[in-house]
Specification:
Rossmann fold, binds alpha-D-glucopyranose, 27% helix, 708 residues, 6-stranded mixed beta sheet, 24 strands, Immunoglobulin-like
Length: 708
């Protein structure tokens, strides 16, 4: 393992000269056309000078469907079914930098293949509360883990001559009233928790674009905020790329014009009346705003186009979508994203001796791709877990299925107008869970009884429950936050009864955000967690259940027992409409639990394997700046382990903070020295080396005098 080297495409003198030349030739109208949406997902080109439109597309899980130029109506001509990648939470659970890079490379290739210039990803907002509707689009509660994986993803994207657009800058950690809520955050907390992933994205990975957030930060809208966009992003971090508003994030012509924002996007088709369109042109003509103000914006857009080889006939990557390589990438990521939370000698199953299996739960057979808001994907296909199990067992076993519970909505209930509507009521209102009438309760009772009756049939070799959440508008979906952490649709009742009749029922949670598992976690003998893991997710989960793959995922977020264990709710404010003060400060996620000795249901960094690992011989090499230890696979199965390094806090600081990690593959019986290079080894400080099991833990001290 060595320190990662990032390839950042610098702006050359030739690019600067060319951009200045083109800028001189552009008329005011042409320049205005380049700084605001002229289609829902594109700006206006300048045909006279062979300057193309800048074409953008969502999202973190693949390239979104093609829309009509002036509305969120899909063209649906069947040329835009694509590779559906695992969500960023799934990528984070792999703790695998190489896979994060492969995910980005795949996303960038698909975007180029679909003719896009900017892919609106990755989302790197910190998971501050399990209630946030967009947690599935984000990586982690920890800024270092988010930074490391996002940088790899950005590198992979931009290798395809496509710009990454790291979002949403900054502190977009709730969906409730997302357009107007004012997030009030102390400077040090911004610097240590909410900024780091963005800073790494632009300084280390060289993200070409950044998306401003909807919310206000300390009183000013994210898309024209001086403290964040100018003082921090431009002046402190030296960001020379393009800043794009979130869709509908601009609220004022003068503020936008004089801000660092370069491109205004919106959901409205009234393109000429965007704040940075006619209203700005008129103010420039009347002399109220100097034309130089937009020259800077257009200059940065031209530099972006030159970096992407969009101008002067430069040779540009062609990309490709729906390739077998891209699908293979999905499978590799999905395999390493699944987290084994509990296993009392139940898993893995033996496929050869399996003759009859009962699978229960709506999520076992529910496709999740085409939902969640702007991250929705029109997938070429999607393996559900049920399909994955049936395929893996082939014709050699009977696989029966019971719905078990119903969410009472299925993905096909898409509301095409949701994105524009979500900006109508002040943006992102708290979800109103659908009233659950007596008829629905009766239906669920019948489904439960049917599943329990089937599970009582002793002829099944295995019973597997797959439940959790989905992208319905009142849970893992943009525009709304969840009302609570409860498992919906009476799943708890079903799981409790299943465990009574078949105590060996395997429980699989498929979700994009933490749910309470208190009703069954102690009773279950096997428990797995899978995020929305893309088109190959069902296949990967089946491979893990039947031992073809050894699970190696680790939690990138704390799975709390209840909301009182989460600092955003215990110390801070969350989900308020007008103003949310981040009184939780630095104590986000495990930083809070460790400081206040709160034991969550499953901690950050936790994840089991079908084999065992031992750690020996910790060693600090101050000269070369790494800490290492010997990791041994003492079990009978090959497996991957993530060694985690935490910096121990000093007084009045978080007890520990992730400072490094490395994932290693070991065949059964093999041992390797694993070196971890933190950003900087700190003299005199103490570090913890730990792995998946609680038993693994070394404390080491870095000598005072680090001789460089
Ligand atoms: C949405 C989202 C953003 C997305 C954009 C375009 O409202 O906040 O993540 O990329 O608008 O759909």
């Amino acid at each position: 393992m060595s320190k990662r080297v990032y390839r950042k495409k610098e702006v050359t003198d030739e690019m600067k000269e060319r951009a200045k030349e083109l800028l001189k030739e552009l008329t005011l109208e042409e320049k205005i056309g380049m700084i605001h949406g002229n289609e829902i997902f594109a700006t206006k080109g300048v045909e006279r000078l062979s300057i193309p439109p800048l074409r953008t597309s969502d999202g973190p899980m693949g390239v979104r469907a093609e829309f009509m130029p002036d509305s969120f109506t899909r063209i649906d001509d069947n040329t835009d079914s694509v590779t559906y990648l695992p969500c960023n939470s799934a990528v984070a659970s792999t703790w695998n930098r190489d896979l994060a890079y492969i995910c980005g490379r795949t996303l960038g290739s698909e975007a180029r293949g679909r003719g896009k210039d900017v892919i609106l990803a990755p989302g790197v907002n910190i998971k501050r509360s399990p209630l946030c509707g967009r947690n599935f689009e984000y990586f982690s509660e920890d800024p270092y883990l988010t930074s490391e994986l996002a940088c790899e993803m950005i590198q992979g994207i931009q290798e395809n001559d496509v710009a990454a657009c790291v979002k949403h800058f900054v502190a977009n950690n709730q969906e409730t009233n997302r357009l107007n809520v004012d997030t009030v955050i102390d400077g040090e907390v911004l610097d240590r928790i909410y900024y780091p992933a963005f800073r790494a994205a632009v300084q280390k990975a060289g993200s070409y674009t950044v998306m401003g957030s909807y919310n206000k930060i300390n009183g000013e809208q994210g898309c024209h905020n001086k403290e964040t966009l100018k003082d921090t992003l431009r002046d402190r971090w030296g960001f020379d790329g393009v800043i794009i508003s979130d869709w509908g994030g601009v609220h004022d012509t003068d503020k936008a014009a004089f801000s660092e924002l370069d491109i205004e996007m919106d959901c409205s088709s009234d393109f000429d009346n965007y704040y940075m369109a006619e209203p700005l042109r008129e103010k420039i003509i009347s002399g109220k705003i100097p034309e130089e103000v937009i020259d800077e914006k257009v200059y940065r857009i031209l530099i972006l186009m030159l970096r992407l080889n969009m101008l002067d006939g430069a040779k540009r990557s062609k990309g490709a979508y729906n390739t077998s390589d891209n699908r293979e990438a999905c499978l590799s990521i999905a395999r390493e994203s699944v987290i084994l939370l509990k296993n009392e000698d139940l898993l893995p199953f033996d496929p050869d001796s399996t003759k009859k299996v009962l699978v229960i739960g709506e999520n076992a057979d529910r496709k999740q791709s085409d939902g969640g808001g702007s991250a929705e994907i029109k997938a070429l296909y999607e393996y559900t877990t049920l399909a994955g199990i049936r395929m893996l067992l082939g014709g050699n076993a009977r696989v029966d299925y019971c719905l078990g519970y119903t969410s009472n909505t299925r993905p096909e209930h898409r509301n095409i107008g949701w994105q524009s509507e979500s900006l109508m009521d002040g943006g992102g209102s708290r979800a109103k869970a659908a009233e659950e009438d007596e008829k629905l309760r009766k239906k669920r009772r019948e489904l439960r009884e049917e599943a329990i009756s089937a599970a009582k049939d002793g002829s099944y070799d295995q019973v597997i429950f797959v439940g959790g959440l989905n992208h319905n508008s009142d849970m893992d979906c943009e525009g709304n936050d969840k009302r609570d952490m409860e498992l919906p649709y009476e799943q708890n009742e079903l799981i409790e009864e299943l465990l009574k009749v078949r105590s060996d029922t395997v429980i699989v949670m498929q979700a994009g955000s933490a749910v309470s598992m208190e009703r069954f976690a102690d009773k279950a003998h096997a428990l797995l967690w899978s995020y929305y893991a893309g088109m190959e997710g069902g296949k990967a989960l089946a491979e893990i259940l039947y031992g073809e793959v050894n699970p190696s995922g680790k939690l990138a977020e704390t799975l709390y027992r209840n909301l009182d264990q989460c600092s955003a709710h215990a110390l801070g404010e969350f989900g308020l409409d007008e103003r949310v003060e981040y009184k939780d400060g630095l104590y986000v996620g495990y930083r809070y639990n460790e400081k206040y000795n709160i034991v969550p249901r499953f901690p950050f960094g936790f994840g089991l394997s079908y084999t065992e690992f031992e750690y020996r011989e910790p060693y600090v090499n101050t000269k070369e700046g790494y800490i290492s230890c010997r990791v041994c696979n003492t079990g009978e199965r090959n497996g991957k382990e993530t060694v985690q390094l935490y910096l121990m806090g000093e007084k009045d600081e978080p007890v520990k903070e992730l400072a490094g990690f490395e994932k290693v593959f070991l065949i059964a019986g093999e041992e390797k020295d694993v070196k971890i290079y933190p950003e900087k080894l700190l003299p005199g400080r103490r570090y913890i080396i730990t792995g998946s099991g609680d038993s693994i833990r070394f404390e080491v001290e870095c000598e005072e005098n680090i001789d460089t």
